[in-house]
Design brief:
The chain is mainly alpha-helical and 492 residues long. It has helices at residues 15-44, 50-76, 85-108, 138-163, 175-197, 200-207, 212-246, 250-277, 279-287, 292-296, 313-336, 342-363, 370-389, 404-426, 466-487, and strands spanning 112-113, 136-137, 297-299, 309-311.
């Protein structure tokens, strides 16, 4: 009798789950291929490299910080862990308290180092060694340390509980994860509505008319309370769901997680750290190389090299192309590896979303940007938590109902509303973000308390809340469509 080999059936997936995957990959592609290369180009070719230096340090410490969190996870949940959870609890508590205190001190006293009036062992015209003024953001350093510490404490407590609990199953999206996502989402939406009515700069000007800059810092500290809670809830929901996702299949997922951290984030962080430290010596060396120097650098004063130098547009175009091509091939490789290395793609994708969220906040900690960057960070972490929730269990069991005409319209409508809502969400960036993030939907905060008059302006700019209204409308419509899409249990 002839043996007939049974053909392996492909993994079945519901259309509701596929829509969430599509939204996540669209976001990752838009940021890594579209937004990040443009940001690098703008900062490289700006009249001063202050923003580029701050960005390099922020990217470096963020990548290395997330690598430290991954190492904590790998060390605690190894089949034969060597370091006890109490060590990470103590270390994490120290980093949390120290980082928080340092960030508050830096925000109120000395955010950027070195200052323009400093002169500490100057070399190559720098203020501290070869570093120019405002090269290092102390608030960012404190926030990175605090985030790493919180993650260490969180994972150490999970590890301690797991040592006395033999259950290694995946409970899915538990009520705790759901409520953290819901509360974080509500806090972000409510804060955006409040921001639409009250301008942060206008409120600071009213509270502290004699010192509006200090007033803006105080307003930002007050806004950091609800937004910080939203960020923490989004982060804990993501970390907890990722822990549940990996728990029953650690032999298959621990190696991909370590690969993402060690070969991806750690190497990227070291590259940016070396670039941030050696930026001005490298610029001075490049400037004096024949042919290449005049082509890739531009100096306003030949007697002040490299303090008056920046990169030319040609150098910006070259680096822009390298960054874009690198991430493009990485995303194409993820598509190729989807079947053979599914867990590597999933874990790499959700960690990338969390890294983008953290980077957005760490790069934009200035007084005129930090509030909106916290909104963006919280929203991205919520997306990472939702994407992680559907990676294994949620919407995985499907019915036998074919898509049909109604199902196709539900998919099209849901994707369209998510697409338009994303444009509205990122359009709340203030004028201080331009041209880094040009708004697609009109938005000017301050329907009740307007922003103070800009320099040279005679009339205040009228408030425009179109972006927030559109975001809420698109979000409600997308949820309604998604409810019926999931309820009908369409299969792929």
């Amino acid at each position: 009798m002839q043996d007939v080999q049974r053909r392996e059936l492909p993994e079945r997936m519901s259309w509701a789950r596929a829509v969430i995957f599509a939204a996540g990959f669209f976001f990752v592609a838009a940021i890594l291929i579209g937004q990040l290369p443009g940001y690098v180009y703008l900062k490289m070719t700006a009249s001063t490299l202050e923003g580029f230096s701050q960005g390099c340090f922020a990217l470096a410490l963020t990548c290395l910080g997330i690598f430290a969190i991954i190492q904590t996870n790998v060390s605690l949940f190894d089949p034969k862990p060597i370091i006890p959870p109490a060590f990470f609890t103590a270390l994490g508590s120290l980093l949390t308290v120290g980082g928080f205190a340092f960030a508050i001190w830096a925000d109120l006293n000395l955010q950027f180092f070195p200052t323009a009036d400093m002169s500490i062992a100057p070399i190559l015209g720098g203020k501290f060694l070869w570093f120019q003024a405002n090269s290092i953001d102390f608030v960012m350093v404190g926030l990175v340390a605090m985030t790493v510490g919180l993650a260490m404490v969180f994972y150490s407590r999970l590890a301690a509980r797991e040592r006395v609990n033999p259950d290694r199953s995946d409970p899915g999206t538990t009520p705790a994860v759901r409520w953290m996502i819901i509360i974080a989402s509500l806090l972000v939406v409510l804060f955006m509505v409040a921001y639409m009515e009250i301008s942060d700069a206008g409120l600071a000007h009213r509270l502290f008319p004699d010192d509006p800059d200090f007033g803006l810092k105080v307003v930002n500290l007050g806004a950091a309370i609800p937004l910080g809670i939203a960020i923490l809830l989004g982060m804990f929901a993501f970390l907890l769901r990722l822990h549940y996702l990996m728990r029953p299949i650690r032999k298959k997922t621990m190696a991909p997680l370590y690969a993402v951290g060690a070969f991806g984030l750690a190497h990227l962080g070291l590259i940016f750290l070396v670039l941030a430290i050696a930026l001005y010596p490298l610029l001075a060396l490049l400037h004096y190389i024949p042919i290449l120097g005049p082509y890739f650098t531009f100096c306003g004063n030949e007697a002040q090299v490299p303090s008056s130098c920046t990169f030319s547009q040609q150098a910006g175009y070259l680096v822009d192309a390298i960054v874009t091509s690198g991430f493009f091939f990485l995303l194409m490789g993820a598509i190729w590896a989807w079947k053979s290395h599914r867990y590597l793609v999933l874990i790499g994708s959700v960690v990338a979303v969390a890294a983008i969220a953290a980077t957005t906040l760490m790069v934009h900690t200035g007084p005129d940007k930090v509030m909106v960057s916290m909104i963006f960070c919280a929203g991205m972490l919520i997306l990472a938590a939702i994407w992680t929730a559907v990676s294994r269990r949620e919407f995985a069991v499907v019915g036998e109902k074919n898509l049909g005409c109604l199902g196709q319209w539900l998919i099209f409508g849901t994707c369209l509303f998510i697409y338009l809502g994303a444009f509205a969400f990122f359009s709340i960036a203030p004028h201080s973000w331009e041209p880094e993030t040009a708004p697609n939907i009109p938005f000017v905060a301050g329907a009740i308390i307007q922003a103070p008059l800009a320099a040279g302006a005679t009339t205040p700019e009228l408030a425009k809340g179109d972006a927030v209204v559109m975001l809420i409308l698109m979000g409600v419509l997308a949820l309604i469509q998604f409810y019926f899409l999931n309820r009908n249990r369409y299969k792929i």
